[in-house]
Amino acid sequence: ASPLTVAIDGPSGSGKSSVSRALARDLGLAYLDTGAMYRALAWWALERELDLQDQALVAQAARDLPLRISTDPDEQALSVDDTDVTQEIRQTRISAQVSAVATNLDVRGELRRRQREIIEQERQRSGGIVVEGRDITTVVAPDAEHRILITASEEARLARRALEVHGSAGAEQLAATRDQVVRRDADDSTVSTFLEAADGVVALDTSDLTLEQVISAVHALVRGEA
Ligand code: C5P
């Protein structure tokens, strides 16, 4: 079979990571979580106590970033300079500050270059890759064989993220999650188009679907049945 790239974008809390990983596993493809790369850079910049507002300094850190990321959907491992940061990059302090590095255009240039390299490599090596993020369908891999935007209502996204982070979706947990989800999407959308589907990108509204239903819908799209 010819190599396959499946590009999946969506806002935070859309469920795109779970869907993308499951799809890669089912199709026997590699998997790349590009958000993890931005998170790793934010972690490293904070570790080195860099001023995240210093554009030139953070851009240089992106070029120097000694990052290793697994493309195995069953092994989500990520290290910076041999320090395993797989868990650390999920901390709230990283979620709260990652947009500051991700809205740096030189940072984006560097991380996109690395992402395209990984995609090319996995197309040769693994027969293809599922890549998820915010600008994959539009900028990183606009020529991907499949381009999908996973959307969900703000209400649904808040509830999912609250459950994931706090274990429940009561009023208090929803309020605590709001900054992370809503403010972050607002900041991120100043540099990427992921709130609406671009030309040629198929939008899938998952507000009223279970994870299993979303996975089957994406399978149908990739098989060309939808
Ligand atoms: O997907 P996740 O929520 O882990 O992404 C973390 C952050 O990385 C996003 O909030 C955004 O700032 C940045 N990001 C990006 N472009 C991508 C993927 C993620 O700017 N393709």
From TrEMBL:
InterPro entries: Cytidylate_kin, Cytidylate_kinase_dom, P-loop_NTPase
Domain of life, per lineage: Bacteria
GO MF, one example: ATP binding
Top EC class for this record: transferase
CDD domains according to UniProt: CMPK
Major localization class: cytoplasm
Protein residues bound to ATP: 10-18
Record family assignment: Belongs to the cytidylate kinase family. Type 1 subfamily.
Name of the protein described by the UniProt record: Cytidylate kinase
Lineage: Bacteria, Bacillati, Actinomycetota, Actinomycetes, Micrococcales
